[in-house]
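Record pair follows.
FIRST:
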Amino acid sequence: MSDSSHERLQKVLADAGLASRREIERWIEAGRIEVNGVTATTGLKVKAKDRIKVDGRLFTPARRTEPLRVLLYRKKVGEVVTRDDPEGRPTIFRKLPNLVSGRWITVGRLDINTSGLLLLTNHGELAKRLMHPSYEITREYAVRVLGEITPEIITTLTRTGVMIDGHRAKFDSLAPGVNEEGVSANQWWGATLHEGRQREVRRLIESQKLQVSRLIRTAYGPIVLGRGIKAGGFREATDAERNALLKAVGLDALAAAPPSPGVVRKRAEAAASARAAARPQAPRSAKAKRAAEAADAGFAKPARKASPKPRAAASAGRSSAAAKTPRAPQARSGKRRP
């Protein structure tokens, strides 16, 4: 933001990574933000010279800007999507990498009993667009249902819809998933929808007198969870995945060009070196270290083995040794021979 240009307050703070625009608008409504000593109002435009305070703390744009990043987090049941939990439950933020500037913003939320894919980014505008219903970003879920879903229920949940909190909610699709052979009370289903209202999947299923025994988010827009992330872990989005997200919400200008094969190879080598360095190694003795260094240099000598002596030579040696050994003198008796 230049000294003369004016931008909306929520956009400036969102671009700095403080939170999404929607969250910052809530901060403004709650009176948590001041501009030049005056409580901010929704829609206020600011300049670079304006003094902005959030919760009494002066906001200073970082000199170093963090590049746009996206994380794929595999949430597990029991984790909460909040920075500080008063009940002391584990949060998804406890293991995330530190940022030079800004902070991680979650793209939507998953309740404590839901697992699966959760996207995080340090770009406020990207997070806002991925969550906004106007961009119709599809969310995919694997849901295990206790009870029978009849064709009539499928019609209700995908066409007619169900009134929830004053709006008509429905799935974009609902189809049987992969189930074990035989009849079981619990059956897997695949569900998709393009809105992320609170607990909407569970509430739709429960509106038909059914029970959700397990719920997993498997995809968000073009990003699929896959099997490469362990529960409670994360990984950086690839360049292709990040660009696909940006293009899905009309931020093509921020998409980076694909890296060259040489850059990809160097990244892979660096990652392999980091994994090898982090792997614990057993301590070695000084002699073993010298032998390893010699082997690496290419002039290690094979260990010399002691050659066994022939049996004949060994017995001859014992005979000669016995011959050279003087005998002890015998004790004389008191009688003399005549």
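SECOND:
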Amino acid sequence: MLDNKTLLSIAFMRAVLAGRTFQDVGRDHGLTGNAVAQRVKSLALHLCTSGLLAGVNPDALGFINKLREHREHIEAALYRAESSNLLLQKPQPKEVLSLHEITVVLHRAGLRSLAPLRDVALVHVALMTGAKPVEVARMRISDYLNRDGSVRSVSLVRARIAYNQRERPLFFQNSDSVSAIDAYLVQRRESQGASYTAYRGFKPNDFLFLNDANKPFKIVRSQGVEGNNHTSPEIVGTYSRILARSGMRGMRLQVFRRTLARRMLERGASEEQIGLILGIADRKNIKKLLPARPDLDELTKDIFSVEADTLDVRLAQATRGASTALQSVENRYGRSLCEAGTHRSDSCTCEALSGYGGAPPL
């Protein structure tokens, strides 16, 4: 059963949907309008993450007029929540993105963004390469383009870029992703002007992606478990806002790397290949990104089991087939074998054996 706090939030939601303001509802309960608004928005987000309010952008539900636009859907979701207690279940962190969710993220990445083409390209790069945010922030034009302006479909995550200072392969081979990056670069070149003859008008050492102020994303040193690391809170915040606009607020950014790993696995990639692309040497850490494999007991149990009825039918058919084949052989060759003195069956009734009382000639 739902707790009293959740039931009160549902009551707040229904009152607001019916036309009352946050402040009006708050006065009835000795709360401020902001406190009621936070409870209602939190409930709306929980309905979305619980799968009860599919197809609705959770960010839009932060506005009272948008709540009322979706009143019918929200009322139905509240009814299902009350009858099934689904709101008691904490949403599980998303491990990978489905194809539908990838489409949603790419569609909504540029919504209400100061740099919509850049944000769409950022999602593409993360999904295509599995690069960490700080690695994306460090990428240069020459990592993506050749001098003649063509795309470096087979490139490198240079040691100076890599989060672990180890060089690894970098592939720009997804056509949709390449188109998204190209569209962003065209817009950037048109707004800033071409300052170089090669590399499509960019300098080879220019950063591939810029922040909202058209400056490189800031990178700072952080003290991590493995010692001094670098991170870019600025680009991490950009990715987090993209996911929030896609209805995936709070999702860990590792979902992009997990999604690439899973799709590579489905295509037949080995753990070593996946680790090479993601820059992970320890097999244990690679396995953490992949679905758990079944144990030997599960793998070998009833590995070629056949339903009993089906097996009985097949055995009967095989027995009848063998009997028919044997009879056919005796009917066809029995007489000639007996006449040749080579048929030694005690049950033979051929005419050639009649003089011997049914016994075969020795």
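COMMENT: The radius of gyration is 35 Å.
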